[in-house]
Structures are given as structure tokens and as C-alpha cells.
Amino acid sequence: MNEMVQDIRASRIPVIVYVAPRGAMAGSAGTVITLAGHAAAMAPETAIGAASPVDSEGKDLGETMEAKEKNILKATVRSIAERRGPEAVALAEMTIEEARAVSASEALDAGLIDFVASDLDSLLEQIDAFTVETVVGEKTLHTARANLDFLDQSFIEKLLGVLTNPLSFTY
To answer: Is residue 99 within 8 Å of 52, Cβ to Cβ?
Structure first.
């Protein structure tokens, strides 16, 4: 997760994180990755949060390790959510400290995300002319007439997905 956050924040090209489709969630590391985006959007009926640290098997950490992990995660989200205002920072910290999760509309109201968009076309329409800050300065997005290319996962990518998350396999 840390490497992904670093890559997003260091990108010269704006990275827009979109939590979709309806029913999807940006939980745990997904919360931090969403916050790292230069812009963030969620589909209706999605959720974000519940980012309290756990071990690799999903179990609670020991007291000292939990305190360390929570504090470093809270410092991370504070630094990347700071640009979104104090309410967003407070909510970001609650996703870690209290395992708080919120809906897309609650995240928008708190300033945790920039847009709620029902589909990709709606997102591209809403985000057009939106200005973001990258490592090379401000960039204004021009998405009104964007050409979209969708890429299928390769066999290896699908296999790795099943091996790392067997629950993702569909019959």
C-alpha cells in the first residue's frame, strides 16, 4: 500500500481514484489509496473506511504494534487528506482509530472525496475542468471528450488474482 500511495502522490499525471460499481468498498488500504488520489470519486451505494490495522490474517495486533500502526497510518492520512480540510482529516483518522466507515454521500459531505458519480461517463463529465495539485504543480483536467480504452486482465493477472484472493474466483 505504501508504495502505491508514494507512486500516486509522485505522479506527474493526475491519478483519479473511482470506487465503483455500486456495492463496492474502499476498505482498509483502499481508504488510504483513495485519499492518495489527486481526485477521488465514489459511485452511489459504495463505502469507504474501516481502515484500522490488522495482521496478515485479519486478526487484531498486539497492543504495542497496534498503537504503532495506528499512529503511522493516522499521520499518513493526515498528510494526504490535509488539502481536503479539517472535517476530512478528522474522518480519515476515525477510519483508522475507530474503524469508522461511511457512505459515498457522507464521504462527499465531509470532503473526503470530490465527487459522487453513478458511472464513468458521469465521472468524466463532473471532473472536466477540475483542477488538481500534482508534484509538478496544478493541472486542470480535460475529460469532456476523453477516449476510453478498456484493457482485459491477462491470464497471469487473473491467476495472480485468484491465488492472492481465492474468494474473487467466479465459476
So the answer is: yes
